[in-house]
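Notebook entry, structure prediction.
Reason for the run: the old model in the group folder had no record of what sequence produced it. Starting over properly, with the input documented here first.
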Amino acid sequence: MKKRNIIIKFVLPLNIMFFLGSSCTDEVENLQPFINGNPATFFNSVSAFQNGLDGGYLQLRNYYADSGSGYQGMPDILSDNVVQAFTGRLSNDVYYDYRYVPSTAGFINRTFSEAYEAVNVANLIIGQIDNLPDAEPQKNDILAQALAIRAMAHLDLVRLYAQIPTQSDGANASPGIAYIQVENGDIADPLDQLERETVQSNYNDIVADLERAAGLIDAENGEGRFDRDGVYGLLSRVYLYMGRYEDAVNAADQVSVPLATGAELEGMYQDANEAGIVLELSIDTGTETGTNTLGNNVGVLYSQSSPDAVIVEYAIEFDLWNSIDEATDARADAMQFVAVDGDGNSYNGISKFFGETGQNNGRVDIKAIRAAEVILNKAEAEFELGREADALATLDELRAVRFDPFVAGTETGQALEDAIQFNRRVELAFEGHRFFDLKRRGESVVRSNNGDIIDGSGTPADALTLDAGDFRFQLPIPINETNANPNFNQNPGY
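New structure, fully documented this time:
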């Protein structure tokens, strides 16, 4: 048995403050106020465990959909996909300019605290799962969802604050995070002060949790929850990050969700359909006024809006936009809108996460894993295995539903690798992947000298490059966490 914990400011004591939510088949929402209770006695029914899972999903979406520093958008702000609009509020410029330090507010501390809170909630469920009898048909599925939540939160922590296994030769042996886990009957000890484990250890634990979950979870669990497709979709990502390419292919092949068609793509981002979604983190959205909406406006990282105007915070980078064929590529309409400011300047606004159909409040469900990512994980893994014909065929599965007219690809060698990475960049733009894709491939962030205006004029970024190997690819551990636990060493360079 492995029982771990780390002193962090939010760690839950034995007498927990716990989110009590109501399960539903549509969106996980309308969470009720906190209650106090001992987890050993509180978790005594299927409904109590389901409420616990709702709390875990709440914690995930808290850091993915945070309106000021969400995990769905900040990795693009850290990369080369966007350019800051200087007529906006200059929000998150400390991240955009790579000036963050351990005391920087927002994304750094928000992700650390909320992700570890998701871990704690998952561990409470896992530790008490034997309160349900083995004959209870939902027991295995509840356990599997908790394992998947624990794995996902740890993955988000380790890929942000530590190296990714394929990033460098020494990545696996470099400092990772603390992987906090309990087994049946355990409650994590909030007084433990653990040291950081290695990256390799962290990823091995993530895989172990996900592989265990895959053998237990139900085929379908409804919107906003892990199911079999979600677990295998996340595994395909983890294996790709680890360089376990054959495993990435096999995991991708287990995902049954079909790709969204070009006609469905724009509506999917507006919550008009669920096409191509493998895992979604459901939030209270713009049509549900009066519900628990605070902090769930991920789209406002890119644009602020009012009844009278749209203020662009970050625009689509000029060269990226011009690399897309608007006439044939369905992704163009799904990602861009033209915004005009009070001075008459036009911008390539980001329409992903702009709002539900008819809304412009930046509040939509988080598309955490899509079938398109899974296909691209598979194509890249096949290429890395030297199976170029397979990689081309897999890439063309995606291109066939994105381009009209579609012409089968003929690329080989470097041209094929470039095509896979280009389509990955375009397909997953503004969805929280680009920074991690550059990082895991050991590549630099290289921004153009283009400005924020729609024609490429205007003000370019102050920081045009982040060289591969720069210490800032690993964000700093929040200073309040290292103060609380001196054993949790700060990342080099900070």
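Summary: The mean pLDDT is 89.
The old model has been moved to the deprecated folder.
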